[in-house]
Amino acid sequence: MTIVQDREEIPTLMEPLRLSESSRHRAALSDLALELAMQAASFRSSLPKVIHAALADLVRSMNCYYSNLIEGHHTHPVDIERALHNDYSLNPEKRNLQLEAKAHICGSASSFIVDSPIFGW
After folding, report:
1. Which H or E element spans position 114?
2. Distance from C-alpha of 77 to C-alpha of 66, rounded to nearest angstrom
3. Which Gene3D superfamilies does UniProt cross-reference here (predicted)?
4. 10-residue block means of pLDDT along the chain (121 residues)?
């Protein structure tokens, strides 16, 4: 069982989360972001329509896996997939991780982003 410790870190340690208007890197990074979005749109349009939903599901699961891993919650991708099909472990700790993963995928911004007409599939 993993013990979670509150290290009393303040959220501002993650700032800045966006570039300030005065950043000397703003224009170059904005151009790179636009280029990335354009290439993603080009890639998406090159794929057969039948692949879009499957790829979106894969991206959601991958996002969930890595997001949870960063938080110290080690949920195996197979267990994430099983949770999405309501196939939960009998192990309470593993089951809780599966429930967390399912909530992450089904009720999170990742679903909105992946499904958006601009960035999504």
Report:
1. helix 109-115
2. 10
3. Fido-like domain
4. 72 72 91 94 89 86 91 92 95 93 78 50 44
Q: For residues 33 and 25, what is the distance between their CA atoms, to the nearest angstrom?
A: 12
How many CB atoms are closer than 10 A to CB 30?
A: 12
CB 104 within 8 A of CB 86: no
pTM of the model: 0.60
DSSP codes joined into one string, 42-57: HHHHHS-HHHHHHHHH
Q: What letters, b where the CB count within 10 A reaches 16 and e where it falls short, cover 75-109?
A: beeebbebbbeeebeeeeebeebbebbbebbeeee
